[in-house]
Amino acid sequence: MNKTVMLSLFLLPLLPRSSAGAQAKDAPPYAVMAPVAEYRIADAKDEIALARTAAPPSISANATVLVLGTRGYETAVKGGNGFVCFVERSWDAGFDDPEFWNPKTRGPDCLNAAAVRSVLPQFMKRTEWALAGLDKVRIMAKVREALASHEFVEPEAGSLSFMLSKQGYLNGADGPWLPHVMYFVPHGQAALWGAGLEGSPVIGKDGGPLEPTVLVVPVRRWSDGSTALPKGEHQHH
């Protein structure tokens, strides 16, 4: 699984991009950013609905919902339970992810209050930088600066998010993959969770110096309550 760490309002004119343009014939897929329009969802109502599929209705119905605007994510619906739901785009992936610029990526995500305070700002800034035309190298430099200045901080204790949408598209190999809960933890703590060990349900490892550590626990049900099955398994009636 090539996991996106996993994060459009209107059809707007394309923004200038330093890395945009047709890819060379011998370039790998998604080597550069695609035209901005390809990352957008035409109708804000569709994006709101997709964002809400990240978590069960008991959570997402009263969550704040963000949509992709001209310069970054914007608040489309103000909620009251502390959760924030939005649809991640490909630039929220790890910097070594080959699908970092995949315009098809749609990752419905719903963060709790702790993650909203400590993790969401990184998603928001990455999006602003991507839409402003920065290439991956320049985004990485901006992240280094934000970490050094403590604009970006370690995840708060209890930071988590729900990614339970069967309508998502996380990467070309897995599509929506499986419904899962993500835990954001400080660097060096993956081992404390038993992450990545044989037989452990906790997937992940310590993130790189520019990224938070994200641990993933697959669950059995999508946000609509239906049962999720790994590839190759079949439901018996």
Topology diagram in text:
Layout: H1 44-52, H2 57-60, E1 64-68, E2 73-77, E3 84-88, E4 107-111, H3 113-118, H4 120-131, H5 136-148, E5 160-163, E6 180-185, E7 213-218
Q: Quickly count the helices.
A: 5
C-alpha-based Rg, rounded = 17 Å
Order of helices and strands: HHEEEEHHHEEE
Shape: globular
Biggest sheet strand order reads 2-1-3-4-5-6-7
Number of beta strands: 7
Helix content class: 10-25%
Helix-strand makeup class: alpha+beta
Q: What percent strand?
A: 15-25%
How can the largest sheet be summarized? Answer: 7 strands, mixed
Q: Which residues form runs of ≥5 with pLDDT under 50?
A: 1-24
Mean pLDDT, all residues: 88
Terminal Cα separation, in Å? 29 Å
Please provide a written account of the structure.
- Helix 4 packs antiparallel against helix 5.
- The protein has 237 residues and is of the alpha+beta class.
- Helices cover 19% and strands 15% of the residues.
- The model is unreliable at 1-24 (pLDDT under 50).
- It starts with 43 loop residues before the first helix and ends in a 19-residue tail after the last strand.
- The protein contains five helices and seven strands; from the N terminus they run ααββββαααβββ.
- A hairpin with a 4-residue loop joins strand 1 (64-68) and strand 2 (73-77).
- It has helices spanning 44-52, 57-60, 113-118, 120-131, 136-148, and strands at 64-68, 73-77, 84-88, 107-111, 160-163, 180-185, 213-218.
- The chain is globular and about 40 Å long.
